[in-house]
Design brief:
The structure is a single chain. With about 240 residues, the protein is α+β, with helices and mostly antiparallel strands. It folds into two domains: about 1-130, Ribosomal Protein L22, Chain A (Alpha-Beta Complex); about 135-240, Alpha-Beta Complex (Ribosomal Protein L22, Chain A). The protein has nine helices and 13 strands. A five-stranded antiparallel sheet has the order 9-13-12-11-10. β1 and β2 (about 10-15) form a beta hairpin. α1 (about 20-25) crosses α4.
Length: about 240
């Protein structure tokens, strides 16, 4: 039996996990920002973190909070909790099966599904697919442009400077693109500047996509397509490796 108290109302459920019912009840107090299907066998979820940890803790009584009690920094704890709830919303029962490789890649135990996770202070983003995938979400700022020479070659910088719109947005998306490919590859030892080359980036009202050449491993160059989005102040890039 699972017992939750939401807005002073007690809910009692029989069967299934507490985390599953917690995700159901959170629809009452904390809306999901977006859930979409990039492909028939892939789901992208984006959760806007709009509640404080104390508000969430007092609204829902769950053992989920004790799972992350070792995290002392409140923003990170909140991101972890919201990510867990988002995973449960997309695929009930899945969060408890997630483990991490030595390279930090999340994996799902005893499953053919693949998962990629990203979060920042305002958003949690999860991509679940039947094939290898990668997603990254960053708040738009000047940070990526300040370090552009560390992860971009001169040709890429020139390409980005000609992209329509805000330059902070363009360089933040460029970082997201390379981070997504790094997560998709999942084997580590990737040099963003040498192994991932951005060849195209379109970000306007008609088309939001990018393509890269990935040249790590076995001496082969692989063309990879990426999908780009922006939610409020958050830039998102993801790939299914196609």
């Amino acid at each position: 039996m699972s017992v939750f108290i939401v807005h002073d109302v007690e809910y009692i459920f029989l069967g299934k996990s507490k985390l599953h019912y917690l995700a159901v009840l959170l629809n009452l107090i904390m809306p999901i920002f977006s859930i979409s299907k990039p492909s028939p066998f892939s789901t992208l979820g984006i959760w806007k973190i709009s509640e404080s940890l104390s508000e969430l803790d007092t609204s829902v009584n769950s053992s989920l909070f004790s799972k992350f009690e070792f995290i002392r920094y409140t923003p990170v704890k909140l991101q972890k909790i919201c990510t867990a709830l988002l995973i449960e919303k997309i695929h009930p029962g899945l969060h408890g099966k997630i483990t991490y490789t030595e390279n930090g890649k999340p994996e799902i135990l005893n499953s053919t599904l693949h998962i990629s996770i990203s979060h920042n202070i305002n958003f949690s983003v999860v991509l679940i697919s039947n094939i290898a995938c990668g997603v990254d979400a960053e708040l738009v700022s000047h940070k990526a442009e300040k370090i552009k020479n560390k992860f971009l070659c001169p040709e890429e910088i020139k390409l980005l400077e000609n992209v329509d719109g805000n330059q902070n947005e363009a360089f933040t998306l460029a970082w997201c693109i390379k981070e997504s490919v790094f997560k998709w590859y999942a084997k580590g030892n990737v040099n963003f500047k040498e192994h991932i080359g951005i060849k195209k980036m379109l970000f306007n009202k008609n088309k939001r996509e990018a393509s890269v050449i990935f040249s790590k491993g076995e001496g082969e160059n692989k063309n990879i397509r990426l999908h780009l989005q922006k939610f409020e102040d958050c830039a998102v890039a993801y790939t299914l490796g196609e």
